[in-house]
Amino acid sequence: MGRGPPAVLALWMLFLSLAQANFAPHFFDNGAGSTNGNMALFSLPEDTPVGSHVYTLNGTDPEGDPVSYHISFNPSARSVFSVDPNLGNITLIEELDREREDEIEAIISISDGLNLVAEKVTILVTDANDEAPRFIQEPYVVQVPEDTPSGSSLARVRAVDRDTGSAGSVTYFLKNPHPSEFSVDRHSGVLRLQAGATLDFEKARAHFLTVVAKDGGGKLRGADVVLSATTEVTVNVEDVQDMAPVFVGTPYYGYVYEDTLPGSEVLTVVAMDGDRGKPNRVLYSLVNGSDGAFEINETSGAISVTQSPSQLRREVYELHVQVTEVSSAGTPAAQAMVPVTIRIVDLNNHPPTFYGESGPQNRFELSMYEHPPQGEILRGLKITVNDSDQGANAKFNLRLVGPGGIFRVVPQTVLNEAQVTIIVENSAAIDFEKFKVLTFKAVDPDTGPWGEVKYSIYGSGADLFLIHPSSGIIYTQPWASLDAEGTARYNFYVKAEDMEGRYSLAEVFITLLDVNDHYPQFGKSVQEKIMVLGSPVKIEVSFKINLGSFRDTNMTLRMLSRGPMAAFLMQTKENPMKAVGVLAGIMAIIVALTVLISTATFWRNKKSNKVQPVRRVLRKRPSPAPRSIRIEWLKFRRTKAADKFVLKEAPPNENCNNNSRGTPAPPPPPSTAPSMGQAPWTVPTVSGSLGPQQPQQPSPKPRAVAKRKAVGSPVQSALVSELRQKFEKKNLHSKAYF
Known about the structure:
Blueprint: H1 4-20, E1 26-27, E2 36-37, E3 43-45, E4 53-57, E5 59-60, E6 68-72, E7 81-83, E8 89-92, E9 103-111, E10 116-126, E11 134-136, E12 140-145, E13 153-156, E14 158-160, E15 170-174, E16 182-184, E17 190-193, E18 206-215, E19 218-220, E20 223-225, E21 228-238, E22 246-248, E23 252-257, E24 265-268, E25 270-272, E26 281-288, E27 294-296, E28 302-305, E29 316-326, E30 332-345, E31 353-356, E32 359-360, E33 383-386, E34 395-397, E35 399-401, E36 407-410, E37 413-415, E38 417-424, E39 441-443, E40 454-458, E41 465-467, E42 474-476, E43 489-497, E44 503-511, H2 550-562, H3 564-571, H4 576-608, H5 630-641, E45 645-648, E46 689-692, H6 702-710, H7 714-737
Parallel strand pairs: 2-4, 3-10, 12-21, 23-30
Antiparallel strand pairs: 1-5, 4-8, 6-9, 7-8, 9-10, 11-14, 13-17, 15-18, 16-17, 18-21, 19-20, 22-25, 24-28, 26-29, 27-28, 29-30, 31-32, 31-33, 33-38, 34-37, 35-39, 36-38, 40-43, 41-42, 43-44, 45-46
Helix pairs in contact: 2-3
Region (Disordered): 644-714
Domain Cadherin: 42-135, 136-247, 248-354, 437-522
Transmembrane segments: 579-603
């Protein structure tokens, strides 16, 4: 009983404290798949758009007090979400990338104002098919020998996809595989040479393949997508020694002329290893057909003649040249053979020679009676003719040159050598009263059918060309279109044949020179003219050179080629109208200056009322002498006054060209004969100059001088007339005084 009251008091106090306590709020746990609560086992796809409402925090307070929500992250991590403190709505504020961050740790909290409850949550970021496959270990370059067996593995390509599931699985295939010698394994990416396929370095030295890597597909922003990537695989084919050597430029023809020296090169054969990647060295040799007359350089392939052409026994030699590859080990390898035709050609360099009984002779004489019988042979003439050339070159004709129809020569056609016979053709014409001596020549005209040659062409490159059968001029076909970029070199054979079928061949090489195919564009006013290919064109250019202006023309051309005018013309070649305008302006200025100068000269002459010569000589008149010596003074004046100075004029212009600008050279001084009769006089002209007269030379007559001087410009004619009148007046005055 004594303890009762304290125990009751304690219980009462506990009850009061519990009644006054405030309990903390808490989150609802709605489990996986729920979009509200405490984010337990919450996951979010990585392709969720930024700004999306992704979750709602939801909780309660036992006392029913209002609660607020908060979310925070580790300081080293990104703040991916934001939350509405009143509603608890969580919004995505940063882009997600599962391949970079597949889990997000956050701290969510709920508070009633007095109590705060915090929980650590982990949000899983789920995969979306946002990553394409990516090839690794690029670039892919494979070296494969050309003799690799079919079905062999060549290389492996590999691509990775960082996505998960089917979106991360990769399969391989070739892009545009048909036709192809290659295949790729769908799952492993191994590249193989297909069954039955072979490689050939000579046909294709490299192959370029495109391999595609594709994923298994997946969802991306709600849609099913399949992503892929490509890579290039280069397969370089390595050459192996599997090809025989090949001759270039066949068929081979050579010619040896009769003046060819022993040791001279006839032609060169060229061969190369058929394996172009790592070619072997080749050696040449003659197999047969040379008979010791020819030899070949084993390294260069040059064929030379070893004997004098006069020692060769055949006209045509068929040689067989063999080329042998030498392996890297120095042993003989593959071989090839080619025929070579060499023709011995005789030159027509020996004229026919006449021989008498004692050797070569070019004059034969015979005495005979007149009127011999018809058909009689002149047996007193022993004539032999010989041509030391060979074949057709030794064939020639004979004929008599002289009075026609009297004799006839037999034979008329000779091959190499023949006895010449002269036969009487017209007995009546052999008449002593008409002819005491008859002179004839027996000649080879080197013309006629034996001198005719016909030309023809043949060969693979002759389709675009034709040859004139008589002149040998080669033309292009009228329809031919030559293009240096397409085919820059043609070769074919020309055959020259005489009437007997004897012929020789020559190989012709034609190289096309590239031209500027892009021609400039002209205006519509320019007419276009087309020349058909194959038509022979003859261009004739005639020049007329005026000797009187040659020096000035040279000077003008040099000025044009070196002066500023040339530079100006080159600069304005693209704009010709600019050049025309400038030249027109210059000409206008020149015309204006000419008009001004002419006007000034005219008014000056009009003011002075007389024509002024360009250069004048003024002499002070001597003071009158006493009458006793007047006769001597007149004699001196008659002989010296007008003759002391003579005119130095330009030589006459034979081409009637008055545009010469050079300084004219003085002509030889006129010869003057001393005369006590009429006094000679000379007249200066506008373009002349005065100088002392050379002594001991007669002066021309006044009329002749006047006549010669009268030919010129009107200014010169006026000046001559004025001065002539002055001199005549002075002469008359002198005569009267005398």
